[in-house]
Design goal:
Strand order of the largest sheet: 14-15-19-13-21
Number of helices: 19
CATH topology of the largest domain: Rossmann fold
Radius of gyration: 31 Å
Structural class: alpha/beta
Number of domains: 3
CATH superfamily of the largest domain: P-loop containing nucleotide triphosphate hydrolases
Number of strands: 23
Distance between the termini: 81 Å
Length: about 550
């Protein structure tokens, strides 16, 4: 079907301008991730999908809709769109096409909190709304009864898992809210990694964090058994192909394994994921608005992943959790009631966003670059009557963060064996008891650590970082031409600082008439205060020394 006059492709510059104007008027052409895509309404069994176009596909697309010709001084003949011109037109960034952020298989929550439920392109959120199930209308201002009904649906379906604590249920609902909030929150907002760990197999961790999310939203399920480089290439290829995925789920992480390392941190924090697609020369840049999850038995987080994660713990009391009888199959029920579950989640969101921004009840949750997401979810759940979100986080992460536990134990024993003074790394590495406690990487658990590796690879990277109220300090010994280290208690430092401040206050606080009378007592107490060492953990001694001056020592 011809929609414009024949285009003379011999005049390439003019042809480009005309074709770009024509492309911007086509209802099924979009700019997605910097490349040209066509909306194929028949793809994925009628659900529709964005299909990336190459030069050949675009030439065929044009051949079905417009006439391209070459005009010479004597003849005008029809031709296919030249490959060079087609490749140039594929570079659509800034060409005026409608920009698509994502394809959503459910109604979209816009930045103003309203809900876009009509099928098609939503210019406000710049998303293509293509629900795969019909969802009953969400009230613009949900009532108390609406919220109660939504809460009941979610509790009936998600409440059957053997959560270790009440907060785990709240974290589960928060995890299922995450894909809905992509259009509401700023593009810079990130959802933390959701770690679903179980005490043993058969507890339902895969149902909860991989298969359930896939059934509800569409997820790219991955295996974490590959090496980091291979996994990155596989991931890029999968995400480029699956334009509708809202979740990246790593299923069945190695039992007792530790989620750590720069690759995980990059996936969770980087705004764009990029890499070369295997077998091509392309290096796509994919906006990182995904919810990332990982599940496994007895898994832990390490290094900086603790402050980038939300934990959901399942703790079944059965010898074989897979044999526990349930009144329904979770996955079958979730699929059958998908529209009802999506409606319930949308009601919770709209119940909170329907209130003006300046009067919405907000519970601020500070978690670095994840603060906006954490605050929104905590506020939505609180307003919807689902409590417990982010409760006991410090205790939970202390148990989950294997690195923090190892360094806390190591620092404590070093202070018990060596004391709080300065020491050389060799003093620790040559002590058999301390050698066994030195924190090691997972691949070097049995390797002996010498003094150089201990200083440069273990202690120095942790200088200033707190573990269990203690931190390591480093200084250069010019005489010995080596670095010295010490493990200090921060509370003990505060006690010593208070002692020094009180001593200085005492020096100028006594009037001359009282000074003679109190000189002996003052000297004794000041002497006692001065002997409080920074390294000492004996707070009672410090408190007793300072009590006469009205100082309050807090542990």
């Amino acid at each position: 079907m011809t929609t414009i006059d024949p285009v003379d492709v011999a005049d390439e510059l003019t042809a480009r301008k005309r074709l770009r104007r024509w492309m911007s008027r086509q209802p099924d052409l979009y700019e997605f991730r910097g490349t040209l895509h066509r909306w194929d309404a028949d793809a994925e069994e009628g659900a529709g999908a964005l299909v990336m176009m190459d030069a050949d596909a675009f030439a065929d697309y044009c051949a079905d809709r417009i006439d391209t010709v070459k005009v010479s001084t004597t003849t005008t003949r029809g031709v296919l769109l030249p490959s060079r011109l087609a490749k140039a037109l594929l570079r659509v960034k800034g060409a005026g096409l409608r920009h698509v952020v994502s394809v959503d298989r459910l109604p979209v929550v816009r930045p103003d909190g309203t809900i876009a439920s009509s099928r098609g392109y939503d210019p406000v959120s710049r998303r293509i709304v293509a629900p795969v199930v019909d969802i009953k209308p969400v009230p613009d201002s949900p009532t108390v009864d609406d919220v109660g009904a939504a809460r009941g649906v979610l509790r009936e379906l998600f409440g059957a898992f053997p959560y270790a604590e009440d907060s785990d249920y709240a974290h589960t609902i928060g995890m299922y809210l995450a894909p809905m909030l992509r259009g509401f929150l700023p593009e810079s907002a990130r959802a933390p990694l959701h770690v679903v760990t179980a005490t043993g197999p058969g507890s339902g961790k895969s149902y909860l964090s991989a298969e359930g999310l896939e059934a509800l939203y569409g997820a790219r399920r991955m295996s974490a058994e590959q090496s980091g480089r291979e996994l990155q290439k596989t991931l890029i290829a999968a995400l480029e192909k699956d334009t509708g995925a809202a979740v990246v789920a790593f299923d069945n992480f190695v039992t007792g394994g530790r989620v750590t390392g720069p690759q995980w941190a990059k996936w969770i924090t980087e705004p764009v994921i990029s890499g070369r697609v295997i077998g091509t020369g392309r290096t796509p840049e994919i906006p990182n608005r995904f919810l990332w999850t990982v599940n496994g038995n007895q898994i832990r987080v390490g290094e900086d992943m603790g402050r980038r994660s939300v934990v959901i713990s399942l703790a079944s009391t059965a010898d074989d959790p897979s044999q526990v009888a349930h009144s329904f199959d979770f996955l079958e029920e979730l699929v059958a009631r998908r529209s009802e579950v999506l409606w319930a989640l949308l009601v919770l969101v709209r119940h909170w966003t329907s209130k003006p921004a300046d009067v919405r009840p907000v519970r601020k949750v500070q978690l670095g670059q994840f603060s906006a997401w954490m605050t929104a979810v905590a506020s939505i759940l609180d307003a919807g009557g689902i409590g417990g979100f982010n409760e006991n986080r410090d205790a939970r992460m202390a148990a989950m963060d294997e690195q923090a536990a190892e360094f806390t134990r190591f620092y404590t024993v070093v202070r018990e064996v060596i004391g709080g003074g300065w020491f050389r790394a060799s003093k620790v590495s040559q002590n058999p008891q301390l050698q066994d406690l030195i924190p090691r990487a997972a691949d070097g658990a049995d390797r002996r650590i010498g003094h150089r590796l201990l200083g440069r690879g273990v202690l120095r990277p942790q200088v200033g970082r707190m573990y269990g109220g203690m931190r390591v300090e480093e200084r250069w010994d010019a005489h010995a031409k080596s670095f010295l280290y010490r493990i200090v208690s921060v509370e003990a430092q505060r006690v010593a600082k208070t002692a020094r401040a009180v001593v200085e206050t005492v020096k100028g606080s006594f009037a001359p008439v009282r000074l003679a009378r109190l000189m002996d007592e003052g000297r004794r107490r000041r002497a006692a205060a001065r002997v409080v060492r920074v390294e000492s953990a004996d707070y009672a001694r410090a408190a007793k020394a300072l009590a006469g001056f009205g100082a309050v020592v807090r542990q």
